[in-house]
Amino acid sequence: MNKKNNAPTRFDNILRTMIVFCFSFIILYVICGAIVSPDLDFFHETAHIYNEDWVVEYPDGTKETHKMPMSLDINDDEMAILYTVLPDDVEDGMYLAVNTGKSFSMSVDGEEIYNFNNTKSNLPGNITKTVIVPVPLDEVYADKQLTMTVTNGKYDRTSVNTAYIGNLMGIFLMLVRNFALQFVMAIILILASVTVICIFAYIKKRDNRNVPLIYLAEGIFAICLWIVFDSPLFQIVFRLYFFDGITGFMLVTTMALPFLLYFDALLENRHHKIFAIFETIIVINFIVLTMLHITGIRSYDRALIYVDLMLLVYIGVMIGVTFNDYVVNKNRDHRNVFIGLIGLSVFSFFEIIVTILSAKTPLKIDIGGLFVLTGMIILLFFAILDQVKVLDRLQQETQNALSATRAKSDFLANMSHEIRTPINAVLGMNEMILRESEEENVRGYANNIADAGKSLLSLVNDILDFSKIESGKMDIVCVEYQMKSLLRDLIMMVRSRMASKNLELILNIDENIPSVYFGDEVRIKQVLTNILTNSAKYTPSGSITLTVENRGIVNDEIELYFSVKDTGIGIKKEDIDKLMNSSFIRVDQEKNRNIEGTGLGVTITRQLLNLMGSKLELDSEYGKGSNFHFILKQKVLDEKAMGSVMSKSEKTAKKESWTFRATKARILAVDDTRTNLLVIKGLLKPYQCSVTTCESGEQCIELCKNSGYDLIFMDHMMPGINGIDTLKELRKDDGIISSYTKVIALTANAISGAADLYRENGFDGYLTKPIDTKELDDCLKSHLPKEVIEEI
Ligand code: ADP
């Protein structure tokens, strides 16, 4: 079998992290065990339980000796008084900590030393639960009588439970012994859930994916936070009685929300309605209960039974819907989550058993909540496995889709090559006929061939451009350009088209706009060509007005307004929206059935303008005409006024595409297709230079060894040594050709990045097939040595 790449997958990485997590957990567990063990006294604690020796005096004056925990049977707003004689070893830094749900004040020798009022909080609402309050002692209190006055207050909750006396660390450790395991597990789960949230939120943002696991981690985080807030350890360290009590209740009210969101997302919103109902109930509950609590109408703790019942309902909904989806919809995608849920259920069951048992015979250490926490660790573990599996699968799918797109664009590049090569031959040969034939009807046929060939070529170009834009490969390449020459080329091109239809071209171009800009000249030209050609196409008679205006300059950036207004068939109101928002729209098909088109032009124009930060706008009146316009921001390089676009001669005479002769120039053309060689030879004829041709890279190398050339036109894709490798060979250290010889790539490959590809490989320039005579002229002019150019 093929051995696949051994690099660890994301799954392996997470598994490794989980293993480290498990071992760290075991180590922590052992450390906690050591702390909890009363035989190992690491911290030299000095604290003990102070539950004996209390005397209670009731409001009616009766006194009795009592041991804590004690339930004080007093009415609202009555008080009970507790007495004790403090031990003789009381010293500074010691505390008497009482665990109570009541308000109290303490005094020694008639002087108040502490006052705790659980009906008065610095946050809205009241304290609503039993808390542990450490009261600082002084060495002068040793052996003295302490009086504790207990009032019922507004909230009658339980009793005075346990008192501890000792230093703070001692009391803390005593509490740790009772609560350490839950506390440590909750902290570990908090850390784990925060880590999960951070890692997967990053993945979610990076891959732009839905990651339900984040909700689950948030839910677990909320539960653990509640456990921590609720623990006496938190209270003794932070003493935020009001804060932790209320936040605890808020958390209990809302803690099912992230779980509902998790299962909703996990089941791909198939049961969204049901989940949404219960999510709304939670939000309403939260708002109502909090308002009632804050305004003092009804305390949170009085709604606890309702909140707990609702929690059971939410759990029922989650289990019911998920199970239904598993069984009825045969959704077996998330097996791991089901395993996790089973784990949680089993441990919750243990928790209930332990709770029932410990209610009968209290256990030495409190293990309440321990099993549920373990269940949650299991659920989180399996939910992570599930999420990783899903993400891996999605990544695989994206990879497949990407390679499919790559295959598509390779295919398009190939197709372009294959189609452009024969068009090159057709158009090139046709150009020969047009140049050499004197017969009127033959020239007529040739003109028709030229028209058909050009529209076939523009069709191929449109398809290529569209697929480039679609696959995000269309780059806006900014260069320095002259607006005058851009507009001139454009006008020359569209003018010949319009002449055949007797359309008038009105130029409304501001001659004072700056002359030199920095932008993508090619794409701006393409956009305007598309709009102008459409206007010519869809205007049976009348005129087309091209407007170019300056709409303001800020710093060195100008807002140029371009508009092409025609007196053509116009577009119906209802079609304007379609045309501006969807792809490949051809409107009014009935009326336009004689006009050829694909619906690609406007789509490409819109997208190119978007890429350049502009937007195509359309005003049109059906039957009267259309106005396509846009505002384009361009960087100005020279503010000098552009001047008149058309010179007098350009306004009248048709100029030949060749502008000079080069009788002394020596040119070599390399192409494996003989017809292409004939075409290039024919196109170079007017320049009267000496042209040598050969059909392969190998022949080219041989020829260069024996004679020197000013310019080499080199085809890229050739059997044997291709164009790029041939050039490498020619430019090797010993230098078959010198830097004096310019080499131009000749290619039918109109793929994006072609210019970069050829430049990086040492070419001096490149021309695409079919060769545009104007481009050929420009190319020869800039690459042939100055001394061989003879102006005509
Ligand atoms: P096509 O290849 O069909 O011309 P385009 O994307 O260039 O595709 O144009 C889409 C449609 O928009 C055309 O089919 C035509 O119905 C409409 N259209 C474009 N320009 C004009 C215009 N100047 N006047 C009227 N209709 C136009």
Structure description:
The chain is elongated. Helix 3 (213-230) runs antiparallel to helix 10. The chain is built from 21 helices and 24 strands. It is 50% helix and 19% strand. By secondary structure, the protein is α+β, with helices and mostly antiparallel strands. Strands 11, 12, 13, 14, 15, 16 and 17 form a 7-stranded mixed beta sheet that branches. The chain has a 6-stranded antiparallel beta sheet with strand order 3-2-4-9-6-7, with no helix packed on it. The protein has a 5-stranded parallel beta sheet with strand order 20-19-21-22-23, with helices on both faces. The chain binds adenosine-5'-diphosphate. The site of adenosine-5'-diphosphate has 22 residues, from helix 13 and helix 15.
Largest sheet: 7 strands, mixed
Estimated share of beta-strand residues: 15-25%
Q: Unreliable stretches, pLDDT < 50, 5 or more residues?
A: 1-5
Give the overall silhouette.
elongated
Task: Give the fraction of residues assigned to helices.
Answer: 40-55%
N-C termini distance: 71 Å
The average pLDDT score comes to 82
- By DSSP, the count of extended strands is 24
Count of helical stretches: 21
Oligomer: single chain
Structural class: alpha+beta
Summed up, what is this model?
The protein is built from 21 helices and 24 strands. It has 792 residues and is of the alpha+beta class. The protein is elongated, with a radius of gyration of 43 Å.
Please describe the structure with a list of short key phrases separated by commas or semicolons:
792 residues, alpha+beta, 7-stranded mixed beta sheet, 6-stranded antiparallel beta sheet, 24 strands, 50% helix, 19% strand, elongated, disordered N terminus, binds adenosine-5'-diphosphate
